[in-house]
């Protein structure tokens, strides 16, 4: 039997994390299935970002286990997580506004050609590959040589999502990807997420606003002050029911 049929893509068990006297996560279980979009919900301070930073190796857990494709893992850096197929797109996007779209697309992974003692960027192939993947997910850029500073917020999100797809990510983590976008651009980003799932990726969509993620998610995990308050299948719930459960934990 293939791994993806037997195990979830990600499974985090009994995760605890404290910062001094502050307990950020308290015995949290979290999982992501194959080709699944999971909305990770909660207000500021709920523990969402801490959980993800533990997953990708920015923080070590004080307790708990992490499994990826059925194998126990403990990443010591985001680079190690990226090497197995976990790509994280933070709110600041880690894009360089004064660099071109294609340079940002390949940032840190630039294809080069060696001539004598020197290495040169393969600019033409970078532009070509960047343009093709962005067109594939519905982004019509005027030129891959255009600077990122001239792109909208939704287009910048598309570059980050397209980059993850191009480099063979298995899990895409999006941190509040639509928080500062218009309704039109939000809908575009949601379409990009669905396309990523159709390409075989799983997605963790972190948000404090369930209405942003509800149209595209398969399942939801809600945290409140470091405690998991529930897992919800989309077919069994509504945004209002999830909000009500979260609010009850604060009574």
Please summarize what this structure is.
By secondary structure, the protein is an alpha/beta fold. It has a domain at 3-96 and 169-248: Rossmann fold, CATH 3.40.50.
Can you walk me through this structure?
The protein is built from nine helices and twelve strands. The chain is an alpha/beta fold. It has a domain at 3-96 and 169-248: P-loop containing nucleotide triphosphate hydrolases (Rossmann fold, 3-Layer(aba) Sandwich). Strands 6-9-10-3-11-12 form a six-stranded mixed sheet, with helices on both faces. Strand 4 and strand 5 (71-73) form a beta hairpin. Helix 6 packs parallel to helix 7. The chain is globular and about 60 Å long. The chain starts with a helix and ends with a helix. The mean pLDDT is 88.
Helix and strand arrangement:
Elements: H1 3-6, E1 10-19, E2 22-32, E3 37-41, H2 48-55, E4 63-68, E5 71-73, H3 78-84, E6 86-89, H4 101-105, E7 112-115, E8 118-121, H5 123-136, H6 153-166, E9 171-175, H7 183-198, E10 202-207, H8 210-213, E11 219-224, E12 227-233, H9 239-248
Parallel strand pairs: 3-10, 3-11, 6-9, 9-10
Antiparallel strand pairs: 1-2, 1-4, 4-5, 7-8, 11-12
Helix pairs in contact: 6-7
């Amino acid at each position: 039997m293939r791994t993806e049929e037997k195990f979830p893509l990600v499974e985090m068990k009994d995760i605890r994390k404290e910062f001094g006297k502050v307990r950020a996560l308290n015995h949290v279980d979290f999982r992501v299935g194959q080709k699944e979009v999971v909305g990770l919900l909660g207000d500021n301070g709920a523990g969402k970002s801490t959980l993800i930073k533990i997953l990708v190796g920015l923080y070590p857990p004080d307790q708990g286990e992490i499994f990826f494709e059925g194998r126990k893992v403990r990443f010591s850096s985001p680079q190690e997580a990226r090497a197995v197929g976990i790509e994280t797109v933070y709110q600041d996007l880690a894009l360089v506004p004064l660099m071109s779209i294609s340079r940002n697309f390949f940032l840190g992974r630039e294809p080069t050609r060696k001539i004598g003692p020197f290495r040169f960027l393969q600019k033409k192939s970078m532009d070509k590959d960047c343009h093709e993947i962005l067109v594939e997910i519905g982004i019509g850029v005027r030129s891959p040589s255009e600077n990122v500073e001239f792109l909208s917020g939704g287009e910048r999100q598309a570059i980050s999502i397209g980059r993850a797809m191009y480099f063979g990510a298995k899990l895409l983590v999006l941190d509040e990807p639509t928080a500062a976008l218009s309704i039109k651009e939000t809908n575009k980003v949601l379409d990009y997420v669905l396309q990523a799932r159709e390409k075989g990726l799983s997605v963790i969509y972190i948000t404090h606003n369930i209405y942003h993620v509800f149209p595209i998610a398969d399942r939801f995990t809600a945290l409140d002050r470091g405690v998991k308050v529930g897992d919800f299948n989309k077919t069994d719930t509504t945004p209002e029911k999830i909000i009500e459960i979260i609010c009850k934990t604060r009574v």
